[in-house]
Design brief:
This protein has about 130 residues and is mainly α. It contains five helices and no strands.
Length: about 130
Amino acid sequence: MFNEILLYIGASIITLWGIAHIMPTKPIVKGFGELSEDNKRIITMEWIAEGLAFIFIGVLVILVTTFGGITGIVPIIVYLSSAAMLLIMSVLSLFTGARTSIIPMKICPVIKTIVALLFIIASTVSVFPL
């Protein structure tokens, strides 16, 4: 039960972060100032793609937990690979967006890492119950 709660919390956080990431796309792109149409499209695409990746990870974890249970090799692989991807994205953000003056970009690696840790802890608890 404890691990399911951690999974749902983490999945909800990263899903909401993905939605929050996508919503301000237009103002974010405008914030870059004068850009060519190609550059605007590339920034828009990348900004939305990262938000969609967050939403996908969160929804995948919710679906696996709800319909597949938390025991067995498949859920553990989903949870740990989701955590690994979030950690990789966190490192990328740490060396790029987090170096800007934009507050949400600075906290993005923290959110990704916290969610990844929730997934890892939940996976460990399901393998080695308390």
